[in-house]
Amino acid sequence: MLVSSGGSDWIAGSGKAERVTGGWRITARKIFASGVPIGDVLVTSAVWEDPEGGPTVLHFPLSLGANGVKVLDTWRVLGMRGTGSHDVAIDGAFVPDAAIMVHRPQGKWHLLFHVISLLAIPLIYSVYLGITEAARDIALERARSRRDGQDISYVVGEMENELAAARFAHRDLLDAAATEEPCEQATNRVMTGRAILARSAIRSVEKAMEVVGGASFFRDLGLERLFRDVQAARFHPLQAKAQLRYAGRIALGLNIDG
Predict the structure, then answer these.
(1) How far apart are CA 236 and CA 195, in angstroms?
(2) 13-19: average pLDDT
(3) What is the CATH number of the domain that holds 57?
């Protein structure tokens, strides 16, 4: 099972790579490594200070059972607890030259990230759409049994509209993955959809809480967990301000690395 160090690395990368005979010594701490308790191989990166080309990010796989690799019990979080996204500490682990898959300049977009954006983001955000739909189902079931005489149709309507927006955005993410080639424009389309989906999913679940009322605060109902889990939709790349900047620079015809 492959585990990624996730969006915490992104364009800048993280960690340190030092040149040694036959390969590299890696020192790093990788966060948001989802599924790491049952993983076999970490796919990650580290930064090499190339004396000629400047800071260079190296991408490579690393066995989670290798010497110098340790999973840390750090995943104590608000939501998405089931992903087991613990930190991984890498302390001098050896990576052979043959394992290096990509060399790229630090801080600049590379084709790799356009591929990741096009294929991974629709999969990741299908989870948040599923959370939103589950919250809506709970809210509707409870709404039908409310006995306080309040007309909550308007709030239900708000919940439905936000869910519809999330579904439209996710449909476009899937269409992009099926039809687009990885490039700056395709990434812009995906990241715009990701932003809309995240915002609408969070709002829809908030409205589900409002529909249910005080009962939503109890764990037994399951809605409070969905509310906690959906908050993580904010934190995958590109986060809100970075997405706005990217979209704005694309619209203005500016270099996305500017």
Answers:
(1) 10
(2) 97
(3) 2.40.110.10
